Every structure is written in C-alpha cells, then in structure tokens.
Amino acid sequence: MGILISEHKSFLIKRINAGEPFTDIKGQLLHLHDDSFQLFTTLQSKKFNHQSFSFSVIKEKNQCEIKADYYVGVDWLGTTGRTIYIEPKLNAGLSEYFNTCLNGEENSTEIPEQFESQETIKAHEVNYLSILLKVMALPQTASYSKDVIQIDWNAKYIEIDQKDDRLTPFLIIQFLQHLKTIVRKGLKKAYYKTQENLNSKIKGKVLIGQHIKKNVFKNRLTSTFCEFQVFGEDHFENRFLKKVLEFATSYIENNPLLFSSNIESIKHILNYCRPAFEHISTQVDVHQLKQSKKNPFFNEYGEAVRIGQFILKRFSYTITKTTQKKIETPPFWIDMPRLFELYFYYQLIKANPEDTHHIHYQFSTYGNSLDILISKPGYEMVIDTKYKLKYIKSHIHQDIRQVSGYSRLKKVINEMKSKNSEWKEDTLLDCLIVYPHLHQPTKDNATTPSSLLEEFSIENIKKQFENTDNQITAYHKVFKLGINLPVL
C-alpha cells in the first residue's frame, strides 16, 4: 500500500491502541495499530545527496511524520513494505507568501492574510516534461542534465499503473533530445564487420563452416562466404540507438496522454530522427557497447547510449511491455531544484546568444559553487536559483547571506577584474535570487505580476532591479525575480 503526497507536503502516521477502529489512508493521515506502527520506528530519512533528502522522517513516541522535499519520485519506505510516491505539485498560493516574506520586517512572523484564504491554496502540477524538453534542447544545458535523476536499479521494483509512470517519459525525452542532436550533426561512421556470400571473389576472412553449408553442399562453386570490415553508419552503436528509438516510438504511440501537451513536440522529434535510421539494422548485441570507443566529436553518443540502456532495461528488453497497463518501475528520484536551475540557465543562454562567454554556470571556488555568475561589464551579478515557494523567514535570510557571501569570494572579484579593467575591488556586486512562479493568466485576470520575469536578456534582468517589487529592502543591492513555470 503506497503513500501519495506532493512536493514539500507532509504525511502523518499515528499509533492507535488495541481495540480502536483501524483507519486506512485518507488525506494526509494514517492510523495504525501498534504492530504495524512498529515497522515505522526504524524508518530513516532518504538521502538524495550530501546536502538534501528526497524525504525526511520525524519520529515521536506515538507518531511518525514523513516530509517530502522538492524531489519527485517513487521509493520504498525502508522495510515497512509500503511505498511513497511524490508528485510534482506546487501550491500557487505560496508564491504570494514568498513575495510578502521577502519584503516583510526582519522579525515579522505573521502569515499573510491571502495565504490563509483557501481560494489561493490551489495545487498546480508542474509540467516538468516541458521544462526537460527545453533543457535538453541546448547542448550547453543538456550536458548538465545527467545528475537530474537518480535510479536504483538494484532495488526491488515497485508496481504502479502505467498512467502514474513518471520515469519512462523523463528518460524518453532525454534520449530523444540527445538523438536529435546526433541526427542534426550526422550519424557517426565506423568500421564494422559484415558477412556476405560473394560471387567470384574473396574479401576479408573466409568462414569455412558457413561456406561449406551455403556453397559446397549446394554446388555453388563460384561463391565464397566471407566476413570483412566495412566503413559506414550501420555499426552497432547506431543499431542500438535505432532499437531504443523503436521502443520509445511504441511507448509514445501507446501512451500519448502521459506526455500531455508536449506530445506534438515529441512527435516532431520522432519524425525528425526516424529518416536518418531508415537504412540502419536493429540486430545488435548489447554487450558490444562495452567495446565502443569515445569520439570527442560525437560526445552525444555516450549519453544517448547510457540513457538508451536505461530505457531497454526499464522494459526488460521486451517491446511488448511498452503497451502494458500495469508496470513495474525501479525506485527513482527527479531533482526538481536542479531542473529549475537548468531551466533558468537555458533561458539565459537562449536570450543572450552573443554573451554566453559572460554567463558562467556552476562557477566553482574553494568548495563553493555559484549557480550562475554574470561577468558582462556593466551588468555584473551573482545569481542563485531557489526552487521554493514557501519561505520561512530564517530560510530566506540564510539564502540571502549565502548569495552575498558568494559575491565576496576573491575568485569572483578576480573574474570581474579580468573582464572589466575599470572594476574596483570595493565595488559591491548585485545579488539576485530567482524563484519559481505559478502565475497563469485567465480571461478575468490577464495581467502579469510586475515582479515576474518574462524576457531573459541580461539587460532586461538588470532593468528589473529598478522595480521596487523586485528589491529586498532589508539588504543593499540584493534583488529577487520570479520566473513562470509551465503547469498542466
């Protein structure tokens, strides 16, 4: 039996005494008798990386609280025999809470009145596939997408409905976007072995056994069965990619609703890629992939093959499993904060094609890693993305102190001086916090919040600092900007 919650929500499990009625899962609360509750006493928080948890466990004497962070996925709850399923839903009302908190007084703990209103507390499901499609569309951002998802192939698989499958659409979009890049550049050519019954000539190595069966016994005295090398596109890597493409095509055709509004874009990628593999065979030995050599000119092959292996493993190398209604999935987690960070980086790269050398992603120094550093003369700033809607005051100030600390790093200052000869060491860098927004204009309310960023050129971002809605008044030269996320 599984527990279903959404991002940054909690689920409470309480112990009840013997003889009291048993209550099954309802809403965000579960009552269990003592024997069943004991299983949860050993449950531990699930680490995603050294800094954060996929979900946290807070245990007390008679209750256990499971708190989801901003990660989406399915996993086992320790040895309890139950599973947890976290879906990508964010509360639209919390966006306004974020804005109010940042502009509030330092010691204020009052919750905004609009946050108390039930009308604003409405969950939207973030269209993470649409975000992924964009992130994977640019080589600069696609190269950083490797760690966005974690899959535990060694754990026991979890049975779910096909309609709840989040892993496969994610992998397929990653694969197709890498494949599109490969096709656009042109399929790699390589030497590969082929076997052919040649007439009146010998090429390569004569396969004696096959030659006797096909020619000697049949009195074909002028034919020789040979194995030889050919230089072309029909080698085992391209064959493997075509095989994965067939699995992806079958899955998309049988489950179009899982891709929601992104289905037309995905079909367009399929139609773009398929002609390039028309003359490629699908006869491939997966073990041959271990013998493949990396080519720096075709870096996309390595990641496409890696994800392709995940897709085939996901279906146990059986294409009929792409049509099943009940499926088994390995435990997995999608890093939504990382995906949001890449989404903003994608928007920056796309909007500033001539200034990409001034946009430094994951600028690292002394164990610190800045999300984004802008070194364009006159527009210098440190940017930190925060995938948070519900902000507690201490958390907000902690984030601001973090981004302010980044701007004081000597390596950051030296980078500014190298790009701008007039830069002075005592100059304070602009600091910007970028957060998600779920504003969806309607017929009755078609206006866009003034604090919402829609045009991502560096010049426009700098211009938004003049807007008082984007100024964090408690700090000097620290700003905030919301960007809209696609929702279903």
Task: Tell me what the structure shows.
- There is one protein chain.
- The protein is α+β, with helices and mostly antiparallel strands and 488 residues long.
- It folds into four domains: 2-87, no CATH class; 97-125 and 352-484, no CATH class; 129-189 and 234-335, no CATH class; 190-232, no CATH class.
- The chain is 31% helix and 25% strand.
- It has helices at 34-38, 93-103, 113-116, 128-135, 139-142, 167-185, 208-216, 236-254, 263-273, 300-314, 336-351, 393-406, 410-419, 458-463; strands spanning 2-6, 10-16, 29-33, 46-47, 53-59, 63-68, 71-76, 83-87, 89-91, 123-125, 149-151, 158-161, 190-199, 205-206, 223-232, 326-329, 332-335, 359-365, 368-374, 381-385, 430-437, 452-453, 478-484.
- The strands form six sheets. It has a six-stranded mixed β-sheet with strand order 18-19-20-21-23-22, sandwiched between helices.
- Strand 4 (46-47) and strand 5 form a beta hairpin.
- Helix 6 crosses helix 8.
- The two termini are 27 Å apart.
- Mean pLDDT is 81; it is low at 94-99, 105-120 and 391-395.
- This is Restriction endonuclease.
- Pfam families: McrBC.
- It comes from Chryseobacterium culicis.
